[in-house]
Amino acid sequence: MTLRKGAKDMGPTRVGVIGGGIRGRIFAETTHHHSGAELVAVCEPNRDRATALGDALGIQTFDSVDELLSSGAELDAVVVATPDFAHEQPAVAALDAGLDLLIEKPLATSEEEAQRIIAAAVRGGGRIVVGFENRWNPLFSAVHHRLRSDNHRMVSQRALLQDTIFVPTEMLSWAAKSSPAWFLMPHVLDMATWLSGARPVDVFARGVNHVLRDRGVDTWDRVSASFAMSDGSILDLDCGWVQPTGKTSVFEFRFEVETDADAYVIDVDATGARHATAARTGTLGALEHDNRGRPQGVAADMMRDFIDLVSGADLDLPGAEQGLLITRALEAVHRSLETGSVEPITS
Ligand SMILES: NC(=O)c1ccc[n+]([C@@H]2O[C@H](COP(=O)([O-])OP(=O)(O)OC[C@H]3O[C@@H](n4cnc5c(N)ncnc54)[C@H](O)[C@@H]3O)[C@@H](O)[C@H]2O)c1
After folding, report:
1. Are 199 and 272 in the same domain?
2. What is the pLDDT of residues 104-154, one digit of tens each?
3. How many domains does the chain have?
4. Ligand 1 pocket residue status of 116, Cβ below 6 Å
């Protein structure tokens, strides 16, 4: 599906944000501070969260996307930043209204849902951008650039992306309806397909699931998935949710690439400043806001590019096809966890 569409009328790009949690707040703040955009409203069913965001940014809030769409508010685009399992309904409603859409990864947690979202884009004429935010990480784009220009043959890729147990037990109220594979693996699988230009053709996955279950969160603790890629290379992804909270960073992210001529290692979490006090050593991540109070980081950069795309810029952003590929592959990972077999990934 092409991301091109005629340039919109003059005037600010009018954006609604659906889901006012951790991610929705970044997208709302970024829109609020963008000189070419207008943040029209945030939809958030949690009243306290909605009020806090509405008051901070001086905007209207609604309980749901349906209320926003029937309010008569003029919109060009929406961002869907609802929990992993709750992407389809707001996405289909917004696309059926003809709006452009930035949707958080994963596009959906089943191929059927992803296909219904894509069908709504075809019906309404809106474009879909999927929030694979690592495309905006300069470390990955440097490797991507070198791989494209060197043209060496890929041998293997390997990634570790894991969170401390804080994420599924305290940060996310909906972890039991997701998994480390749905929440973390889209990031690394998108990177692997982007860096290699290849797609996954089959997968064998193993998992462990007793730590979180014992804590009342019924999902996988750790998922390790081995993919065969269409270029003959191999890809191993390891994602987990039960690392101890005493670690220096809430997440750990390492990505390795090996070609027939060279090798790359990206230690994403090691890019923070190491910070020691008398009590502990930690990593001071980059500030989420710059000195002028504007959001900074990969998610804010992605949001600014989405606004520019809606305003008429010609940008190559990850779209529905890529979102569908990742959803299909991760469905196959979950199938393999259940069957104990190698599962094909349809293209
Ligand atoms: N938190 C992260 O580090 C991170 C990073 C990248 C991508 N994501 C993705 O972003 C999405 C949102 O994650 P989050 O961390 O912001 O979660 P969150 O729980 O902080 O926020 C989700 C919000 O959506 C609201 N909500 C639920 N159903 C809704 C609906 N139908 N309409 C409107 N709002 C609804 C919830 O009340 C909640 O406030 C997920 O798909 C996640 O995988 C999260």
Report:
1. yes
2. 999 999 999 999 999 999 999 999 999 999 999 999 999 999 999 998 999
3. 2
4. no
| Residues 123 and 73 occupy one common structural domain | yes
Residue from 23, 47, 330 whose mutation best tests the ligand 1 pocket (most atoms within 8 A of CB):
23
Question: What does the pLDDT look like over 206-227, one tens digit per residue?
Answer: 999 999 999 999 999 999 999 9
Q: Name the one residue in this structure whose structure tokens are 């452009």.
A: 100
Token pair listed for 338: 């259940």
Q: Which residues contact 34 (CB under 8 A, 6 or more apart)?
A: 13, 303, 304, 307
What Rg, from alpha-carbon coordinates, does the chain have? 20
CB of 90 closer than 6 angstroms to any ligand 1 atom: yes
Antiparallel, parallel or unpaired: β 222-229 and 200-208? antiparallel
Where residue 50 falls among pLDDT bands split at 50, 70, 90?
A: very high
Do residues 256 and 159 share a domain? yes
Distance 329 CA to ligand 1 centre (A): 22
Instruction: Check pocket membership of 125 for ligand 1, CB cut-off 6 A.
Output: no
What CATH number should be reported for the domain holding residue 85?
Answer: 3.40.50.720
205 lies in the same domain as 305: no
Q: Which pLDDT value is given to residue 153?
A: 96
**Residues 157-184 pLDDT 10s:** 999 999 999 999 999 999 999 999 999 9
Whether 22 is in the pocket of ligand 1, judged by its Cβ within 6 Å, is yes
Query: Contact, 214 vs 347, CB < 8 A?
Result: no
Q: Regarding beta strands 234-243 and 222-229, do their DSSP bridges make them parallel or antiparallel, or are they unpaired?
A: antiparallel
Ligand 1 centre and the CA of 85: distance in Å? 10
**Domain enclosing residue 112, as ranges:** 13-134+294-318
CA of 44 to the centre of ligand 1 (A): 10
